[in-house]
Amino acid sequence: MDWIAFTYSGYLLLALAGTLALQSAFRIRLDWRAASIAIALSGLFFLLWDVWAVAEGHWFFGLESMLGAMIGNQPIEEIAFFIVIPLFGITVWEFFGRESKAKRRLRDD
């Protein structure tokens, strides 16, 4: 297997590592129940969209940059994408929400 096959999964691992580092460095604590529901709902919607788009020929995957494991017509990296990227988004949302709350408290004091 050529190293290029690890491209998509490598970027996902970097995104996940960045997310976990951000959570750790700034002590961001997520409501995991709410985050899981949000990730599952958005992931299901976009996964169904992807399945349809691939089946209709509107979308395809450059399989040379993927590991080759598939679930249906979806590479495992694509399924992981719908978990990792929303998790990053929720983490960033929580970070900026917390920061703006802290600024409001400082301003109001």
Automatic annotation (TrEMBL):
Which residue windows are transmembrane per the record?
6-26, 38-59, 79-97
Keywords attached to this entry: Carotenoid biosynthesis, Isomerase, Membrane, Transmembrane, Transmembrane helix
Subcellular location(s): the record lists: Membrane
> Which GO BP terms apply?
carotenoid biosynthetic process
Source superkingdom = Archaea
Residue stretches making up the Lycopene cyclase domain: 11-96
GO MF annotation list: intramolecular lyase activity; lycopene beta cyclase activity
Pathway the protein acts in: Carotenoid biosynthesis
Major location (coarse): membrane
Membrane-protein topology? Multi-pass membrane protein
Q: Which Pfam families match?
A: Lycopene_cyc
What cellular component terms from Gene Ontology apply here? membrane
Please state what the protein is called. Lycopene cyclase domain-containing protein
